[in-house]
Design goal:
By secondary structure, the protein is of the alpha+beta class. The chain has 11 helices and 9 strands. The strands form 3 sheets. A 4-stranded antiparallel beta sheet has the order 2-3-7-6, covered by helices on one side. Strands 1-4-5 form a 3-stranded mixed beta sheet. Strand 8 and strand 9 form a beta hairpin. Helix 1 runs parallel beside helix 4.
Length: 380
């Protein structure tokens, strides 16, 4: 085993870190307060190649490995998880899904502008009654011969109002259960497609999360991804990779909070010396550093499994389960170390604590990750 990063990985890390600190950090508190989508920052991310990192260069992507993506996600997430979740959805769910399972025509038409950041993508699976239970799709897609007619509602969709390309999961043959589900490419502006209300969220407030409505939307047959009935498999395989992105985001949130807490502890004095020299705080920092490093190794292991072509269902679920737990616990500790200052927006850690919670919920709750893990460890 080699735990050293390559020169390429270090270059990616340094570029992402520089972008996060110099471009994302200015104005991040104001964007959070105002629920402002970071459109200009996302555009710059695309120009730098961070919106299609793993996509083959022939489709406009960076041709990088999953580990490079995880490293970049960590650095961006240290500063602004609203930016990184947009980056994650575009890379992990939309671009990867299209490149892996889309037709050549779909790749040329949709993947190229998505990989270059010219357009933003959204992944539409969750519904009012189908979050963790992805088999219970109420959105329907009726086969009309040369097209499908789409009806239904999708909830909690990241990039809901900023995306141009939407991957929508819908039920075509209810009698077949999950084998009757399909995945479709829906374009913004199609008649009957309405972007609904924006959610007023606790965290990642700069990310635009919306309800989407489909009212007799005509989707061309060529916009179906894969064979008839492939939609559920498409969603599950795509989400396995998505877990790596969110695990990396959770890792970044925890690491960002740790860096802020460490710096603050060296400046703040109590009882005549810096609080970092008090054992109560020093031991907190020791625990934080240890758990964050353990999470990082799990995240890197899952990325490596994916890059090596191995099954990464279990390792990605473990990475997301643990990293999201660490993010929640260590951001709380960071607030505690800051004391009263941690409870005000100026010091950033209260925002990181609010952002951390969603990593235990979206792209598969912690409970769902335990289902995935237990099924794998109990398989004979």
């Amino acid at each position: 085993m080699n735990f050293d990063l390559t020169e390429e990985h270090i270059a990616v890390r340094d570029a992402a870190r520089d972008f996060a600190q110099n471009v994302c950090k200015p104005g991040v508190i104001e964007r959070d307060n105002n629920q402002e989508f970071p459109a200009e920052i996302i555009k710059q991310l695309g120009e730098l190649g961070f919106m299609g990192m793993m996509v083959d260069p022939k489709y406009g992507g960076g041709g990088m490995d999953t580990l490079s993506y995880a490293i970049a996600m960590e650095e961006i997430s240290k500063v602004d998880a609203s930016v990184s979740v947009c980056m994650s959805v575009n890379n992990s769910l939309v671009c990867w899904g299209l490149e892996k399972f889309g037709s050549e025509e779909q790749k040329q038409k949709y993947l190229v502008p998505l990989a270059t950041g010219e357009k933003i993508g959204a992944f539409c699976l969750s519904e009012p009654e189908a979050g963790s239970d992805a088999t219970s799709q109420r959105t329907t897609a009726v086969d009309m011969g040369d097209h499908y007619v789409l009806n239904g509602t999708k909830n909690w969709i990241t990039n809901g109002s900023s995306a141009s390309v939407y991957l929508v999961i819908a039920q075509t043959n209810p009698e077949l259960g999950h084998k009757g589900i399909n995945a479709f490419i829906v374009e913004r502006g199609m008649e009957g497609f309405v972007v609904g209300a924006k959610e007023d969220k606790m965290g990642i407030r700069g990310s635009d999360t919306h309800t989407l409505l489909f009212n007799d939307v005509k989707v061309p047959k060529e916009n179906r991804i894969g064979e008839d009935g492939f939609g559920f498999t498409f969603a599950m395989k795509t989400l396995s990779g998505g877990r790596i992105g969110i695990a990396s985001q959770a890792l970044g949130i925890a690491a960002g909070a740790f860096e802020l807490a460490t710096a603050y502890s060296k400046e703040r004095k109590a009882f005549g010396k810096e609080i970092s020299k008090h054992q109560a705080i020093a031991f907190k920092l020791a625990d934080m550093a240890t758990e964050i490093e353990a999470a990082r190794l799990l995240v890197y292991k899952s990325a490596r499994d994916k890059d090596m072509g191995r099954n990464f269902d279990q390792s990605s679920a473990m990475a997301k389960l643990y990293a999201s737990k660490v993010a929640m616990e260590q951001t709380v500790e960071a607030v505690q170390i800051h004391g009263g200052y941690g409870f005000v927006k100026e010091y950033h850690v209260e925002r990181l604590m609010r952002d951390a919670k969603i990593t235990q919920i979206y792209e598969g709750t912690s409970e769902v990750q335990k289902i995935v893990i237990s099924r794998n460890v109990l398989r004979d």
